[in-house]
Design goal:
The complex is a heterotrimer.
Chain A: H1 26-42, H2 45-70, E1 73-74, E2 77-78, H3 79-110, H4 113-118, H5 124-152, H6 165-186, H7 196-206, H8 219-227, H9 229-242, H10 248-277
Antiparallel strand pairs in A: 1-2
Chain B: H1 12-29, H2 31-52, E1 59-60, E2 63-64, H3 65-85, H4 88-96, H5 99-105, H6 110-138, H7 145-172, H8 179-192, H9 205-210, H10 215-228, H11 234-264
Chain C: E1 4-15, E2 18-29, E3 33-37, H1 44-51, E4 59-64, E5 67-68, H2 74-77, E6 80-83, H3 95-105, H4 110-123, H5 139-150, E7 157-161, H6 169-184, E8 188-193, H7 196-202, E9 205-210, E10 213-218, H8 220-227, E11 231-236, E12 249-253, E13 256-261, H9 264-270, E14 277-281, H10 284-292
Parallel strand pairs in C: 3-8, 3-9, 6-7, 7-8
Antiparallel strand pairs in C: 1-2, 1-4, 4-5, 9-10, 11-13, 11-14, 12-13
Helix pairs in contact in C: 3-4, 8-10
The chains are: A mainly alpha, B mainly alpha, C alpha/beta.
The complex binds adenosine-5'-diphosphate and magnesium ion.
Magnesium ion (MG) is lined by residues 44-45, 85, 161-162 of chain C.
Chain lengths: 279, 265, 299
């Protein structure tokens, strides 16, 4: 009937081995957060994959057919070859933006996951880097799938080195993710992300040469487009998948820009989140 | 007790109105983000497609590309706003915040909660469509103003249909991830294959047939000639609208059944 | 003659193969303060949901205001105020708006709502917080707001599901005072709790349930008299030698043992003067321990 309540065993401090104290390096910290997101994702991966893998592939099909009928060639290549890296950009844009905005905000505010994690030896920097890296990971899956589909239907004009477009997609997604995370850090409500669609996401989608080349727009639009990270990512991916205008120095310049965006926006997001969480 | 307490008198319409008003009050708090994105986003789309596609596709059938794309965008905005509002936000109220349970502890019936939810989501779609009508009118994108006026109530009616489908997803979803299906099988095909931006004639025949499942395709078929000022076959309009309404009744019934099961079992 | 507000007879409810409520019968009359006392998983919430018509009984009868519970309509619901176990305040609205909007669900006229809201905010001591976001409220304030919300239509029957669980002592005392004030206004109150002191302090009558069954019911005094001896001695282990020879009913609760007796002098004489022990009158907790056993409950 009555269960014994056992007294807890207490160990004197001297008996506790010092080596057992955890030390958490930067890489392990970031990995720990990344892994947490990956575990959550894995439990629902079929449903989750649907949106960000299949959806851009459907876009590829739709634009290939629909716009392909209107534009036969663009930027000196068949329209379908033009649009494959563009759709890789669309896939990574949506995946990464949503992950670092709505999903991150939900984790931070509704689930209080950040607060729970910060009660451990993890630092906020681990969380920020982990979020950005995770967004990059998801987006990589999405972009790789589009590259595969594109290649199957003859949308990739180069050989194996078109695979180098995949790490570029990762990097671009991380740049978008860092920008989205900065938005998250300053949003009071989830509805504040409504502003991001007309002010950030739609311009990136439309004016980064994703499915219509930037040169067709007025000069001021081109200038706006060139500031956005997606433009640089799509440019490099297009060089790698089509072989057109492939100049190594230009590639490195675009990549340097992406890295700079990741560092600057990641640092800003970290600073803002720091002020917000430890207020 | 000294006096008989005032308990109020609730009616079906009153109940639906009370739920609608609750959503409206919440929405007033986020008025600016909603309106800014509701107006600015379609302007960007119009601009991008006008420049990009319009420069190449000058004419679709008998109408200019602008007159072609405007009704498509109106229908798409109505579709997106109303069915989205009944999806993730409704799910949050239903499963996370348990708002429905609080409502049901008051003298409201379950069906009023469902109708109120659909009505609200449809209202958001109507507002979004209205923004687009205004933008389109400003850029001279409406071929016939009277036709556009006639099309407006039809768009509004369709919003209830779009919202009902969103609510079906809310009723069946187990986690937020399930809304992936909503986007892949509903939002994206509605946007891409139902003739919003490009003439669906470009797509393979089987796809053109399959997309008649989507009510937005019927709506575009109805309002495109109306807004462009072309001649209209009213029997076909009636048939398309009948499909849209049937879609609504089936979805609303499915959603209500499933939600009742989750709430009361 | 007092009217019967709730009448349950052989009430059952199963979830699949598992029967959460296994034939519960009780009655609640107008103006009574009734406590439904039971550990976690006893079936309290399930019973309350059946009373609200939110879950159909799978057997037995349950009448609320003379109407079978699963058919209760607007008229009956308007007379009930529910404080659910889980917080379902509207997080998108402010404190004041939560009450106002809830009033509109009852179809109350605007001026009545405004007046009630002010009164209730004062009654629940939330006036300073009225413009706050509900997310910013402490646990105790949230509970008070939910109680205020339940009172918006001036109900005859107030149903509270564990209203004080997890609150600090001050917050609990405030809620107790308010509940007693409601009772003095003539409202019928049905409260579930797993705190014995709360039930003992507030309730006219207590229904002890566990495992979906009613174990016993009566006023706190009756229950104590029926089930346990008058005096309780709490002794730290190790127990003095020879105490078992006194043949006193005892309960072992880990490092302490409880001895129940009507003859306090006899036990006190046995215990040596230098021993540390606690001598107290028996309370509802002892009844509860005896009736429900001391198994560890689901956590
Ligand atoms: N919807 C449900 N499905 C399955 N089991 C349930 C459901 N609701 C309650 N139960 C089970 O019924 C029992 C009684 O639950 P409940 O009435 O919530 O207990 P209490 O409120 O007394 O803590 C518990 O064992 C619980 O797990
Ligand atoms: Mg309970």
């Amino acid at each position: 009937m009555s269960a014994e309540l056992k007294p807890t065993v207490t160990v004197s401090p001297s008996a506790r081995p010092q080596a057992a104290l955890p030390t958490l390096g930067m890489v392990r910290g970031i990995y720990a957060f990344w892994r947490r997101n990956a575990l959550v994702w894995r439990s629902n991966w079929i449903a989750a994959c649907f949106a960000f893998v299949l959806d851009p592939a459907v876009f590829l099909f739709a634009f290939g057919y629909g716009l392909g009928a209107a534009f036969t060639t663009m930027s000196g290549m068949p329209y379908f070859a033009f649009v494959v890296p563009g759709m890789m950009g669309l896939g990574l844009l949506y995946t990464s933006f949503i992950e670092c905005s709505y999903a991150a905000f939900f984790r931070m505010e509704a689930q209080r996951t950040y607060h729970a994690i910060l009660a451990t030896p993890m630092a906020l920097g681990h969380i920020v880097a982990g979020e950005i890296l995770w967004a990059g990971t998801k987006a990589t899956l999405s972009s790789s799938f589009i590259l595969l589909v594109g290649a199957c239907f003859g949308g990739v004009l180069t050989g194996w080195h078109s695979l180098l477009a995949i790490p570029v997609a990762t990097l671009t997604a991380m740049a978008v993710g860092a920008m989205a995370l900065l938005l998250t850090s300053v949003s009071r409500r989830i509805d504040d992300f409504n502003y991001a669609w007309p002010l950030l996401v739609t311009p990136m989608l439309m004016f980064s040469g994703t499915f219509i080349e930037l040169a067709r727009f007025p000069v001021w639009v081109q200038m706006v487009g060139k500031c956005l990270p997606l433009y640089h990512g799509v440019e490099v991916m297009r060089m790698l998948t089509s072989g057109h205008n492939l100049v190594l120095e230009t590639v490195w310049a675009h990549i340097a820009y992406l890295v700079a965006i990741i560092i600057v926006f990641g640092a800003l997001a970290l600073a803002r989140l720091n002020g917000r969480i430890f207020k | 007790m000294s006096t008989t307490p005032e308990r109020g008198r609730q009616t079906m319409l009153g109940g639906i109105a009370a739920i609608w008003m609750r959503h409206y009050r919440v929405w007033l708090r986020i008025f600016w983000p909603s309106v800014v994105s509701g107006i600015l986003n379609p302007i960007l789309f119009l601009f991008a497609f006008g420049f990009g596609l319009g420069a190449v596709v000058k004419q679709v059938g008998d109408i200019s590309y602008l007159h072609f794309v405007v009704p498509g965008m109106i229908a798409n905005a109505a579709l997106f706003q109303s069915s989205f509002e009944a999806s993730i936000p409704s799910y949050t109220r239903f499963r996370i915040q348990r708002t429905y349970e609080a409502m049901l502890a008051a003298p409201l019936f379950f069906r009023e909660v469902v109708y109120g939810e659909i009505l609200w989501a449809a209202s958001k779609g109507v507002l979004s469509a209205l923004c687009l009508y205004l933008v389109a009118w400003a850029v001279d994108g409406l071929g016939s103003l009277s036709g556009a006026l006639i099309s407006f109530p039809l768009v509004a009616l369709s919003c209830a249909s779009f919202a009902s489908l969103g609510l079906v997803c809310t009723a069946y979803a187990r986690t937020y991830e399930y809304f992936s299906f909503f986007f892949v099988f509903w939002i994206t095909p509605s946007l891409l294959f139902c003739g919003v931006f490009v003439d669906p004639a470009a797509y393979p025949q089987w796809l053109q047939w399959a997309t008649w499942f989507f009510p937005v395709k019927h709506l575009i078929e109805v309002i495109r000639p109306l807004c462009a000022g072309l001649s209209v076959d009213w029997t076909m309009v009636a048939l398309h609208m009948a499909y849209i309404m049937a879609f609504m009744f089936i979805c609303a019934a499915m959603a209500a059944r499933r939600m009742a099961k989750k709430l009361f079992d | 003659m007092q009217q019967t507000v709730i009448h349950a007879d052989g009430l059952r409810r199963s979830f699949g193969a598992f029967e959460a409520v296994k034939g519960v019968s009780f009655q609640v009359s107008e103006g009574q303060f009734i406590g439904l006392l039971g550990p976690n998983g006893a079936g309290k919430t399930t019973t309350m949901r059946m009373i609200m018509g939110m879950t159909k009984p799978s057997g037995g009868t349950l009448d609320v205001f003379g109407v079978p519970s699963h058919t209760i309509g607007r008229g009956e619901k308007a007379r009930i105020g529910l404080v659910p176990q889980e917080d379902n305040l509207d997080p998108d609205l402010s404190v004041r708006q939560n009450l106002e909007v809830y009033g509109t669900y009852f179809g109350l006229p605007h001026d009545v709502i405004q007046e009630r809201v002010d009164t209730l905010l004062r009654f629940m001591e939330l006036s300073e917080k009225k413009e706050n976001d509900v997310r910013a409220l402490s646990g105790g304030m949230k509970r008070r707001l939910i109680i205020a919300r339940a009172l918006i239509a001036d109900p005859d029957l107030v149903i509270l599901d564990e209203p004080t669980t997890g609150l600090d002592p001050q917050a609990r005392v405030l809620i107790w005072q308010r509940l007693l004030a409601l009772k003095s206004q003539g409202k019928t109150i049905l409260l579930t709790t797993h705190y014995m002191d709360e039930a003992q302090r507030l309730c006219d009558r207590i229904i002890v349930i566990d495992g979906g069954r009613v174990l016993d019911e009566g006023s706190p005094k009756e229950l104590i008299a029926r089930h346990v001896e008058e005096h309780v001695f709490e002794l730290q282990k190790p127990l003095p030698k020879g105490i078992e020879k006194l043949d006193i009913r005892s309960e072992d609760i880990g490092d302490t043992a409880l001895f129940y007796t009507d003859d306090a002098a006899r036990l006190r004489n046995f215990l040596k003067a230098d021993m540390v022990y606690l001598h107290r009158p028996a309370n509802l907790e002892d009844v509860f321990l005896k009736l429900t056993g001391r198994k560890l409950r689901e956590v």
